[in-house]
Amino acid sequence: MATSRPGPNLSRIATSLGVSVATVSNALSGKGRVSGQLVERIREHAAELGYVPSQAGRALRTGRSGVLGLVLPDIANPLFPKIAQAIEFAASAAGYGVLIADSRGDVAAQTEAINRLVERGVDGMVVIPRRATRISSAACPVAVIDTPSTPGNTVAADHWQGGREIAGHLAGLGHRRILIIGNNQESNVQNDRAGGIRSGMRPGMHSETLWIDRLEQENGNGCPLGLAEKVGQGFTAFAALSDLLALRALTELQQAGINIPTDVSVTGFDDLIWSPVVTPSLTTVRMDMDRIAGIAVSALVDTIRTSSIREGVLVTAEIERVAMQLIVRQSSGPANPAPRTSEKENM
Amino acid sequence: MATSRPGPNLSRIATSLGVSVATVSNALSGKGRVSGQLVERIREHAAELGYVPSQAGRALRTGRSGVLGLVLPDIANPLFPKIAQAIEFAASAAGYGVLIADSRGDVAAQTEAINRLVERGVDGMVVIPRRATRISSAACPVAVIDTPSTPGNTVAADHWQGGREIAGHLAGLGHRRILIIGNNQESNVQNDRAGGIRSGMRPGMHSETLWIDRLEQENGNGCPLGLAEKVGQGFTAFAALSDLLALRALTELQQAGINIPTDVSVTGFDDLIWSPVVTPSLTTVRMDMDRIAGIAVSALVDTIRTSSIREGVLVTAEIERVAMQLIVRQSSGPANPAPRTSEKENM
DNA sequence: TCACTCTGATTAAACGATTAATCAGAGTGA
DNA sequence: TCACTCTGATTAATCGTTTAATCAGAGTGA
């Protein structure tokens, strides 16, 4: 129950040096008027005492906690490690801590998670929204990372352009019939990626889109996608809208005895952890998460600094879209004019 | 710059009701002596004003922030989503927030991350340590989640037993020669898993262990593992020590024209997100992260409640190991007495 | 009636930092 | 010398909550 004081505080330093707390505070923050040598002495002494300012005291006085919230409604998302890492890094560099909030599940839980963060006094938050939900702005500045086409988006990877990269790459390899494999038609991100692919196709090319969640509603989770059949229909390239889907396609095709990239090509999105190490390694498109996180966080921090306290605003950044980068690996190759599923050549 | 007051505070409620702040505080926390009806009135009024206690004020007074730190030195780890989700859920249920800290890289960075958390005033932290590092306990209670064989471990999945499950499963399918595929020999977790597999093998069974990092030091990252050759040497089962490695093995074998599970079996660990959806879906062993997180957090919270402030202790829990659960899917099947790599049957 | 206890409330002092307001003293120009 | 400015420091209030200490009043037993 004891509320002892573990570390030294301002007043300890002050009395120990025979000056006032205000002077110590000013010296350390460099704000008031303190003589150069005194500043020196105070800083030195503070350092040697191992002084760490109390966030609680500061927060109480200033009304700012120095903490940002990170809301990831789709936390099972395999992109999470990258996102969390990038946000934490950027925030930490700006002197902020990162409080995570997960809403397992529905939109109500997302709102609830946001409220929890607000109650904990975050100064602002970064939200990667659940598919197609709008953030009714909370009681603090909010930066949204989704996709440039989403209204209210702060900054995001240019998924549309990423799609064009994929289309261009496949077109250059001579592919004419492309099957786009998506998960959920509600997802802004996936829609933009698919749209980008379609818009990047050259005359004479044809695409079809397969949305897996529909298929799974009928046939159960993890059901076969029937890709071998698609190969029979003349599709030579499978452009998945995420690396997880690409992996699923890759293994299903391989299991059916179809060789990649000899028979057909497979591409993904995101450059997730397994993409470089599967066989064949996955051609994909990478987003510069560090850059995106950096922009989001610095825009957020700027807004926090300039806006009055507890104001709910959607943060805007100068750069709203960050280019994606095509990573060509082994899973894509020249189009095979007539791939056969029944016989195959080993190299 | 204005330090305005966004929400109502204790004194607002107090004056509005014509009572003292202390009474309001007591009524809301149920601590002092307040008459039943007054408690009722105060609670009601607080609720309708939408009162939210200031964490800063409380933290300053009590010396507790209500925040736990989560240190994940190996944040790129694909297990991260599950861990973070489970910890956040458990902490949130106990009334705590979760501050994340990532140390990209070395052990020094890990220490630095821990310090950052301490500076932010966390009441305790959960650490998933970098391979084989010991946590020199910080200035607050620390719960460690690694593996039961690690000294100082608080609670963890029983990786050894998980290994035995795998061994038993493969033995039951008639496999006699097993190749264990690990990543890093320094990892306590992987060593325990491998040890469990070996200890669970029946007489007449034989195993060999392939550590990938060595291979990659010579041949570069993402190099082939030469598994087809191992099949030629009579190995019929490949027991990877993580699902990522299993995936790598699976695709390499498939690409070499070896059918799974007809020719050989592949198993993993962790039941990561892709395990159910690849073809063939992956037989693996799942850890009950929710349970582990629950135990770790409640042990941590208990320690925080009872110990005096800022004391650095390694938390211990009653239950130290949590059983892993075998998930049998399609990637494992009866041993094929003489698998051939050059020809295969499609079902 | 007096001394005492018990109840239900209030008072006031923290916690640690920030910052506006104040102040002492030195220097300066007329 | 006086009025003024400038510098370098101090004083004191404040943020919102918790909690030990205090207090007024009612009830009680002798």
TrEMBL record, chains A, B:
SUPFAM superfamilies assigned: lambda repressor-like DNA-binding domains, Periplasmic binding protein-like I
Keywords: DNA-binding, Transcription, Transcription regulation
Lineage: superkingdom: Bacteria
Coiled coil segments of this chain: none
Entry-linked InterPro entries: HTH_LacI, LacI/GalR-like_sensor, Lambda_DNA-bd_dom_sf, Peripla_BP_I
One Gene Ontology term of the molecular function aspect: DNA-binding transcription factor activity
Ranges where the HTH lacI-type domain occurs: 8-62
Keyword Transcription regulation: yes
UniProt-recorded name of the protein: LacI family DNA-binding transcriptional regulator
